[in-house]
Amino acid sequence: MNHTRLVHNVGVGALEWLHAHRDGFRLELDVDPEIGFLERFKPVGELALICKVLFREGVAGSRQATLARQLIEHAWCHTLDGGRMLVRGQRAEPLSPIPFEVYLPFRELGYSSPEAERAFRLNHRLDSYAALEMSPVRRLGLSAFQRRFGLPPRVPEADVVGATWLGRAPEPWTVEGHIAYDITHTVFHLTDWG
């Protein structure tokens, strides 16, 4: 088996497994208090992002594209309740960027929630939103998401990229786990996950 076929088979298997276990993405309201309500949105956002890239790059076969569309539809309609869970999350933590970051790939795939978008636009105008303390790569990601949404980034990407590990270009032999994660995400944010 060649490497391309192996990678394809792993991807197909992963997508089929996710589809078969899609009910596992539900958001229980009586979650363990040690796990934040908004933190549980992240896997749903990752799912939407992965499916968006699959569609954009045209790398999924017709069966995989159908499964991916069904996964996204399920996540939007059942897990996020048509965006209402994101609105609830934004109301619970108005300064959290998580509902916005989860929403954007769904919006780019054609889903919308006017109520969520109103909340995101309102919060975007707050000075507290721009003043949130976060790592440079996290700030770069948020600025990229704001640009993709059509909002002027509160902190321009060009002003942030130089503060990232990759932007500072230190000694490459010092890369370790967290740094490698930050490097890959710097590239992801600058290339829209390309």
Secondary structure layout plus pairing:
Layout: H1 3-20, H2 42-57, H3 62-79, H4 84-92, H5 98-108, H6 114-125, H7 127-131, H8 136-149, H9 157-161, H10 165-168, H11 177-191
Describe this structure in words.
The chain is mainly alpha-helical and 194 residues long. Helices cover 65% and strands 0% of the residues. The protein has a domain at 1-95. The chain has helices at residues 3-20, 42-57, 62-79, 84-92, 98-108, 114-125, 127-131, 136-149, 157-161, 165-168, 177-191. Helix 1 (3-20) packs parallel to helix 3, helix 2 runs parallel beside helix 5 and helix 8 packs parallel to helix 11. The two termini are 26 Å apart. The model has no long low-confidence stretch (mean pLDDT 90).
End-to-end separation in angstroms reads: 26 Å
Rg to the nearest angstrom?
Answer: 18 Å
Number of helices: 11
Q: Sheet with the most strands?
A: none
Q: What's the count of strands? A: 0
Strand content is under 5%
- Oligomeric state of shown chains: single chain
> Could you estimate the helical fraction of the residues in percent?
55-70%
Q: Spell out the helices and strands N to C.
A: HHHHHHHHHHH
**Structural class by secondary-structure content:** mainly alpha
Could you name the ranges where pLDDT drops below 50 across 5 or more consecutive residues?
Answer: none
Label the overall shape. Answer: globular
Output mean pLDDT. 90
